[in-house]
Known about the structure:
The protein has helices at about 35-45, 50-55, 65-80; strands spanning about 1-5, 10-15, 15-20, 30, 45-50, 85-90. It has one domain (about 1-85): Outer Surface Protein A, domain 3. By secondary structure, it is of the alpha+beta class.
Amino acid sequence: MKLSAHKEINCRKVGGNYLVYSNLNSETISLSYFAYCMLLTLISREMDISDLMRSQAQYAKDLNNDELLQVLKKTINELVIRGFIYKLPD
């Protein structure tokens, strides 16, 4: 499964907060640092989940691989539900 971010979103760090805004639905949400870094990665290019996991491991050094995969899946699902990223067909 490949993932990509919608091109109509903007990520910003405002003070100590990480925010993403969607031009598609005019929604702004606050992100964790992990989700913010993941979203910036997906904005730059499409990735499959294993490549994304490797790239994001540096932001979650205190997690083992199983925990990182669970956090990654939960973050991906939430961002898909909210319309910030989407899954590409294989």
